[in-house]
Write a structure and sequence with these properties.
The complex is a heterotrimer. Chain A is of the alpha/beta class. Chain A has a six-stranded mixed beta sheet with strand order 6-7-8-3-9-10, sandwiched between helices. A four-stranded antiparallel beta sheet of chain A has the order 2-1-4-5, with helices on one face. In chain A, α4 crosses α5 and α5 packs across α6. The longest helix of chain A is centred in the C-terminal third of the chain and has 18 residues. Chain B has a five-stranded parallel beta sheet with strand order 6-7-8-3-9, with helices on both faces. In chain B, strands 2-1-4-5 form a four-stranded antiparallel beta sheet, covered by helices on one side. In chain B, β4 and β5 form a beta hairpin. The N and C termini of chain B lie far apart (about 35 Å). Chain C is of the alpha/beta class. In chain C, α3 links the parallel β2 and β3. In chain C, α1 crosses α2. The longest helix of chain C has 16 residues. Classes of the chains: A alpha/beta, B alpha/beta, C alpha/beta.
Chain lengths: ~260, ~230, ~290
């Protein structure tokens, strides 16, 4: 953790419109290694737009997104060449989609799904690749006997865990997650969250997690950003934002959560 | 050596859902706590004891005044510090034992207690060993260690909470009704643990409704009634 | 046979030939890279070798000698038709003998005989894109080639090994050209892949329906994709050619009767004939006492 003092990701003045429709406006924040930032808000708040802009999936209209590459320099991700950017996406970054089908190759086996990124960066030893896949399947609590099965035969929770394994196999430093527990049964969510919490802690990952579920935000994130109508209306320590919300919308959000 | 200096701290809540109604709680709070001090926050229910404690922990925002905390060799103003600094302070300097354990499903009791130890760099084995000691001390049966506290009784959950709070030595300890759900035997154990920490130099700020416990732990009290603001 | 009047030499107009030759030059300059070209309507449907025919038509000259094979044989329908096509439209000399030809158009095989520096192989290609079955989007496969992102290719090989215990691809086996572009060598058996590596002959590939041309210049490194612990292997047979006794050539399995009788025969008809002329005999001929 020696480079803990330098931010890993710096976002400045980010704005994106869809024609007349506002996506997000003037968003800025920094992310340090090992830190998890949650972005909460309801549908239409702009949180997914924000996530896509900072993960190089959607070019913003205005603003800069800089990432500290392994060489140590902060680079503007939209000024990089496409090969550089694609390499980053494949090695240093991970993106966990809400629907695991968007983040997996459904027609190849679980093992191939996990091994793909290794092969993409030059892995050429079948035994080693399979071994790494085996390793990761057990880390995400998938029965390793299913390494040759197709993801279509997995349950939703298993597919999501497979997606996580597939993303983490190259040891990325920054993970983007878009509603990672959306659509899963409650008990399945608990298992997934526990896994994510463990991995983030163990691997020292930095993460940006978009979610509408405050409980997920509280569990996983150190800091929280509340978005409303495209703008960040409040940000700070997660427990502080949730326990002592200042902005009217934050207060509304927090008070609307049902306590079972 | 002073550990906590609260200077001119004020807090009010603005409830936007109720037309922006503002609830003033406290104003101008001054308090100093030194190493080895144990001070009780007193006053009627609603006077702002928990609120002040949460502000010291950085859980509530502090709009007025300063909350200076000795963090290592320097002073940090929790009221103005950025989130990363506060996380640092919470890991190394301030421990907080709240009234209720926030339970995470699936995390076993042993792990709940071991986590802060591991976060300070201890090995898996060391962390578990120390966690076991504490749970034993607080009479949590070993059969429960591998279970999540979700199904524990209120008292058992509280004891796990306390064990976690004492897992690593903190220079400053905040205790909010730590013995509320405990029987006499366990209460005495906790009092002893608090006293031991105090003798070791920990600065303690506590809220105790039980007068006996308060008397056993704290030699001073700070009555917040004097800082109360009219709403 | 004389040229049929009314057709330009080798059927295509001269401008089209120039366009195709430019594409060929580009392909040779970037070995293994698929060059798009304006494929013409030919007097036979797609799937019948229009790509190969267009390439041959663009490079053939009056003094050239053409050999056409299909699955190694000169006498199958397609080979015969194409040879006739060029006889009619170009009036050039044709042959069934590999060593006599300087242009060899082929579907699905490379001749057994070593090729020479003055020879050109023209391959008929159905699907030029080696990644097509893994990634259906053309936009994506173009990017993958441009950015050298070939992990997906190895995913396919990985799947083979996990399912079958070995790499199951036996023809159209993907190769890496000059450690850069991954190429589909057309549906030749993997047995023939090593022949492309550092061959003295120029190898040209034409896909008519898909409108792509690619090439491997002479003496270019071409290696079949594999894993370190599952290296590339060519097919072998326990049998030898029933007719000529060859043990190192690609054998076709021929069913001889309804009782399950079969024999293995060289796929390369010219090669087999040469061996028999030289006096070699396989078990079938030896049995008949034809020595």
């Amino acid at each position: 953790m020696s480079d803990n003092h330098e931010p890993l990701l710096v976002v400045d003045g980010l704005s994106k419109r869809y024609g007349a429709q506002l996506g997000c406006r003037d968003v800025g924040f920094s992310l340090w290694p090992g830190e998890v930032v949650g972005v909460v808000g309801e549908s239409g708040s702009g949180k997914t737009t924000l996530l896509n802009c900072i993960s190089a999936r959607l070019t913003p209209d205005v603003g800069v997104v800089r990432y500290r590459t392994r060489l140590g320099t902060l680079s503007d991700i939209y000024q990089m060449s496409e090969p550089e950017r694609r390499m980053l996406i494949r090695t240093d970054w991970a993106f966990v989609h809400q629907n695991p089908r968007d983040g997996l190759r459904m027609k190849v086996s679980a093992g191939a799904n996990v091994g793909e990124r290794l092969m993409a960066v030059g892995g050429r030893h079948y035994g080693n690749i399979r071994g790494a896949a085996d390793d990761w399947l057990s880390k995400v609590e998938i029965d390793t006997g299913r390494i040759d099965d197709l993801p279509a035969t997995f349950s939703g929770g298993m597919q999501q865990r497979l997606q996580i394994a597939r993303n983490l196999v190259t040891g990325p430093r920054l993970v983007f997650m878009d509603e990672p527990t959306g659509g899963l049964d409650v008990s399945v969510q608990a298992r997934l969250l526990d896994l994510m919490r463990g991995l983030v802690g163990e691997l020292g990952l930095a993460a940006v997690i978009v979610t509408h579920d405050l409980a997920v935000a509280r569990l996983l994130s150190h800091r929280l950003m509340v978005m409303w109508r495209g703008e960040v209306v409040e940000q700070g320590l997660t427990d502080q934002v949730l326990d002592d919300p200042q902005h009217p919308y934050s207060q509304l959000l927090v008070s609307s959560v049902l306590q079972p | 050596m002073d550990m906590v200096r609260v200077r001119g701290v004020g807090k009010s809540f603005k409830l936007h859902a109720q037309g922006g109604a503002e609830i003033a709680v406290v104003g101008g709070v001054d308090m100093t706590v030194a190493a080895g001090d144990a001070i009780a926050l007193t006053g009627a229910s609603g006077v702002g004891k928990s609120t002040l404690m949460r502000m010291i922990f950085g859980n509530y925002l502090c709009p007025e005044g300063k909350i200076l905390v000795r963090h290592g060799a320097c002073w940090v103003d929790v009221a103005r510090a950025d989130p990363r600094a506060i996380i640092d302070v919470r890991r190394e300097t301030i421990g907080y034992i709240s009234q209720f354990l926030r339970v995470i499903p699936r995390v076993p009791a042993l792990e709940v207690v071991a986590e802060p130890i591991r976060m300070r760099g201890a090995s898996e084995g060391e962390a578990r060993e120390r966690a076991s000691e504490l749970l034993t001390c607080l009479r949590i049966p070993e059969t429960l260690w591998s279970l999540s506290p979700v199904t524990f009784s209120g008292g058992e959950q509280q004891r796990v909470n306390i064990a976690r709070g004492f897992a690593v030595p903190y220079p400053i300890l905040l205790l909010d009704e730590p013995t509320a759900s405990l029987d006499k035997e366990n209460r005495d154990t906790v009092i002893e643990m608090i006293d031991e920490a105090r003798r070791g130099g920990t600065a303690i700020i506590g809220i105790f409704h039980d007068g006996n416990v308060r008397a056993a732990v704290c030699e001073r009290a700070c009555d917040l009634t004097q800082y109360r603001l009219a709403s | 046979m004389a040229e049929t009047s009314g057709y330009n030499f080798a059927y295509l107009d001269e401008q089209t030939k120039r366009m195709i030759r430019r594409a060929l030059l580009k392909a040779i300059a970037v070995p293994g890279y698929q060059v798009p070209f304006a494929s013409r309507e030919m007097p036979m449907p797609y799937g019948w070798g229009t790509g190969g025919i267009q390439v041959t038509a663009s490079i053939v000259g009056r003094d050239d000698v053409l050999k056409v094979i299909d699955q190694g044989a000169d006498d199958t329908t397609n080979a015969v038709s194409i040879r006739k096509f060029f006889k009619r439209t170009a009036g050039i000399e044709t042959t069934t003998q590999t060593h006599e030809a300087n242009i060899i158009q082929t579907r699905h095989r490379i001749p057994e005989e070593d090729l020479r520096a003055d020879q050109i192989m023209v391959f008929q290609v159905p699907i030029p894109e080696p990644l097509r079955f893994l990634e259906p989007r053309e936009t994506e496969t173009r990017k993958m080639h441009a950015l050298e992102e070939y992990g997906l290719m190895h995913v396919k090989l990985y799947e083979d090994i996990s399912q079958h215990g070995h790499i199951a691809t036996t023809y159209a086996y993907p190769v890496a050209v000059k450690q850069r572009y991954v190429m589909d060598p057309s549906p030749i058996p993997k047995f023939d892949n090593p022949k492309i590596n550092r061959s003295p002959a120029l190898m040209l590939f034409g896909a008519g329906r898909e409108k792509r041309i690619y090439a491997v210049p002479p003496f270019t490194d071409v290696h079949s994709l594999d894993f370190e612990d599952f290296p590339f292997e060519i097919q072998t047979w326990q049998e030898s050619c029933a007719l000529c006794g060859a043990t190192g050539s690609f054998l076709d399995e021929i069913v001889t009767d309804d009782a399950g009788g079969r024999m293995f025969v060289c796929s390369d008809t010219d090669f087999c004939e040469k061996r028999r002329e030289a006096g070699h005999a396989g078990p079938a001929l030896a049995a008949e006492g034809a020595v």
